[in-house]
Fold:
Amino acid sequence: DTAVSQTPKYLVTQMGNDKSIKCEQNLGHDTMYWYKQDSKKFLKIMFSYNNKELIINETVPNRFSPKSPDKAHLNLHINSLELGDSAVYFCASSPSGGELFFGEGSRLTVL
Amino acid sequence: GENVEQHPSTLSVQEGDSAVIKCTYSDSASNYFPWYKQELGKRPQLIIDIRSNVGEKKDQRIAVTLNKTAKHFSLHITETQPEDSAVYFCAASHGYIPTFGRGTSLIVHP
Structure:
């Protein structure tokens, strides 16, 4: 019974395309996140969403946009993909201020 | 915003030795300090955490210490085993957005 699930697990696409990654959590947590992990393993916060309050890391290009249809879902949309967007994207959830529960990750490769 | 520095970036030890990873943080308001372990190809998972009202916490072979005055905290792993090989991340948070250190790749040689 997966707690935080994200799809797809692998995504290979061409530069300039638009893609989405979906995330769902069944833990009843209030807060969801998207993190980007680059080849050097650094975990960079992209977005957090808590009770309809969206906090955006100002370094994230506006080609990236989160969409939350409800408290259990936080999807990530990426427009006009660039080579530098290649990374592993992790969705996570937490009871506010507590442990993060990560999804399995989605490996995006932009060709 | 919060800034977390983590050292060393790579740590190589022999099985049975101890390993210590150190982190410093900048925001004195931070009050929650978790440690995550990420095995190759897997997701990060919490292994231990500590809150600012506690100075030390231990769970079997793993311990975390916190010095709020100096704004640093450390992870101690005793009697290391090959399965401890992974990337370890420290984090600090005030509110609900943790800031992660850059990670330490721990290699335990049999």
The radius of gyration of chain B is 13 Å. Residues 6 and 36 of chain B are 13 Å apart (CA to CA).
